[in-house]
Structure to design on (625 residues):
């Protein structure tokens, strides 16, 4: 098992290096550098543009005049020391901008993940136990609907319709975390997290149901029943843990989908998270910020998959002992 | 390699084709009995394709012309789905939006599945160092969340419908190539591949005539199961203002944040595109699932 973990950990290194390479090359390919964006801003403000020496100095500060391999090595070396450069427009270090916005995205993502997993697994379990009944059919239909509604359409629908029907709209101003106002803080995440997690919970529900139905047909479950164990024990103790292995292993893949969804949901509900910062950075062509967010979210996905792989090995003796 | 089979495929239907055609109605009936939801979805998709193809004939108004009626008028006999804040006819925009959705969805689908087949088949078949390097790149493409990847690529390319197709196709190709690769690695170990090689068949010949026919069902399944996601992705990008540039009607664009203040007074602006998107995604997913169950039951849990 230790050997397996070490092998998986080592596998992260080339992926991370390639992630950084992709991000550096992508920005190099971009038409119109951040300096052009600054210039456009200066033009709007009515001040003189950035020309000649000032431009060269700026290019040097941003490292845009270095050859690509050097830029890459420098970016990687700095990233290893948690320095992702500076925002071109604000002059603020990208790391501190991410530090400020990441918790919002994390709270939203974790709340969505938790409700989706708990509800998805529970409803999947119920649906499998009462398979073929009317209720099973209703639950499955709802889950198919949940999978089909695009989250940004649902989020817009929730905001607009709740305003029209109940004169309720999500808070316009964001309340930062404060131990004296826990409810105000967490309540602003409820609607966004519900919308963000809906498709995932429907997906988990369907997967749990299919897996459980398959496992229930296996010999060891029949044996458990045959030796007189109550149905509850046969299902919950013998079948469920095995049925959940593939469900857990897909959760890692879903982290990338959740981060994508968070970009949309944060924009719609006005939550000042990393996703909304990304959209602002894109419209301002603030490349170091875009790079930083791509790297950080990429690392999140890589680590989520690592954790899933390791827990998969831990849950499944065939993987654990084979490695 | 002879050209004879190609000529026959392109020419007049042979005797077996005519037989297949005669049996088509009864096969359709059997399909809809086994897969009622799949059949319903098939009908929805036929309507979608027809409205995309015949948009000009169906709609009463030019979808991008302003002031064809009073602005923000509710649904009525002349404007079935009402009008938006520019006085454009929402029904006409929804029907034309089907064309945008299908154009981007199918375009990206074809591009994605073709590149996935090419990349996955070659990477899986050759194996070794080449495979290792390709797979690390695929890993990276998987690590960057899809929306961030797409926004990044579109930032490089610029705002154009064709670039949206290119970005989506690229992303899909990289994701699906893993599945194709896995399947090719399985087939590579089969006896008939070994036999072909012992006859002196070249790698290209083995790939084309022995490996590809065996992953054909998988490719059809990939085509049918990814198109719904692609339509949503296009809508999401247009929703954020980075997809299909206005005034081209796109369901995602119609839902966008800019229009939200009008939705409070005119909820039909929201309901029509949201319903259209949900229905089409539902239909593509259900039809894809039904087709998968029919073609290759082994993939059912995939």
């Amino acid at each position: 098992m230790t050997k397996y973990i070490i092998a998986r950990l080592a596998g992260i290194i080339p992926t991370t290096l390639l992630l950084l390479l992709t991000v550096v090359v992508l920005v190099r390919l971009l038409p119109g550098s951040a300096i052009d964006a600054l210039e456009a801003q200066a033009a709007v403000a009515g001040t003189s543009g950035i020309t000649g020496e000032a431009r060269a100095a700026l290019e040097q500060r941003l490292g845009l005049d270095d050859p690509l391999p050097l830029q890459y090595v420098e970016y990687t070396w700095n990233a290893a020391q948690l320095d992702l450069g500076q925002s071109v427009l604000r002059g603020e270090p990208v790391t501190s901008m991410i530090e400020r916005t990441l918790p919002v995205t994390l709270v939203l993502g974790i709340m969505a993940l938790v409700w989706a997993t708990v509800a998805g697994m529970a409803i999947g379990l119920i649906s499998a136990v009462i398979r073929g009944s009317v209720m099973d059919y209703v639950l499955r239909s709802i889950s198919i609907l949940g999978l089909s509604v695009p989250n940004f359409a649902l989020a817009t629908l929730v905001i607009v319709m709740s305003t029209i029907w109940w004169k309720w709209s999500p808070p316009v101003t964001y309340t930062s975390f404060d131990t004296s106002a826990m409810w105000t803080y967490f309540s602003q995440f409820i609607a966004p997290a519900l919308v963000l997690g809906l498709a995932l919970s429907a997906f988990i529900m369907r997967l749990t149901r299919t897996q459980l139905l398959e496992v229930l047909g296996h010999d060891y479950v029949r044996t458990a029943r045959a030796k007189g164990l109550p149905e509850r024990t046969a299902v919950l103790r013998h079948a469920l843990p095995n049925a959940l292995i593939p469900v857990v292993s897909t959760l890692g893949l879903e982290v990338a989908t959740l981060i994508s969804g968070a970009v949309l949901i944060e924009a719609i509900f006005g939550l000042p998270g990393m996703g909304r910062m990304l959209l602002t950075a894109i419209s301002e062509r603030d490349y170091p910020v875009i790079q930083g967010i791509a790297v950080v979210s990429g690392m999140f996905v890589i680590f989520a998959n690592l954790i899933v792989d390791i827990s998969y090995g831990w849950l499944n003796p065939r993987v654990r002992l084979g490695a | 390699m002879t050209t004879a089979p190609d000529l026959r495929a392109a020419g007049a239907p042979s005797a077996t084709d005519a037989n297949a055609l005669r049996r088509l109605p009864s096969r359709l009936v059997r399909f809809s009995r086994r897969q009622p939801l799949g059949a319903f979805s098939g009908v929805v998709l036929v309507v979608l394709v027809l409205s995309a193809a015949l948009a000009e004939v169906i709609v009463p108004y030019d979808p991008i012309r302003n002031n064809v009626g009073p602005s923000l008028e509710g649904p009525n006999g002349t404007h079935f789905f009402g009008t938006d804040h520019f006085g454009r006819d929402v029904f006409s925009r929804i029907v034309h939006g089907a064309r945008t959705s299908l154009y981007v969805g199918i375009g990206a689908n074809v591009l994605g599945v073709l590149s996935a087949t090419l990349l996955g088949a070659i990477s899986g078949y050759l194996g070794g160092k080449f495979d290792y390097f390709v797979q690390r790149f695929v890993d990276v493409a998987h690590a960057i969340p899809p929306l961030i990847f797409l926004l990044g690529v579109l930032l490089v390319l610029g705002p154009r419908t064709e670039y949206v197709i290119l970005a989506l196709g690229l992303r899909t190709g990289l994701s699906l190539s893993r599945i194709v690769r896995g399947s090719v690695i399985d087939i590579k170990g089969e006896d008939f591949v070994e036999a072909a090689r012992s006859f002196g068949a070249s790698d290209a010949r083995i790939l084309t005539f022995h490996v590809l026919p065996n992953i054909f069902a998988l490719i059809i399944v990939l085509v049918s199961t990814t198109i719904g996601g692609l339509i949503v992705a296009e809508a999401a990008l247009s929703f954020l203002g980075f997809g299909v540039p206005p005034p081209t009607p796109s369901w995602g664009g119609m839902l966008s944040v800019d229009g939200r203040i009008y939705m409070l007074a005119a909820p039909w602006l929201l309901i029509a595109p949201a319903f259209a998107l949900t229905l089409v995604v539902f239909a593509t997913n259900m039809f894809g699932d039904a087709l998968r169950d029919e073609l290759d039951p082994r993939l059912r849990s995939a």
User: Anything to note?
Assistant: Chain B has one domain: 36-70+79-300. The radius of gyration of chain B is 23 Å.
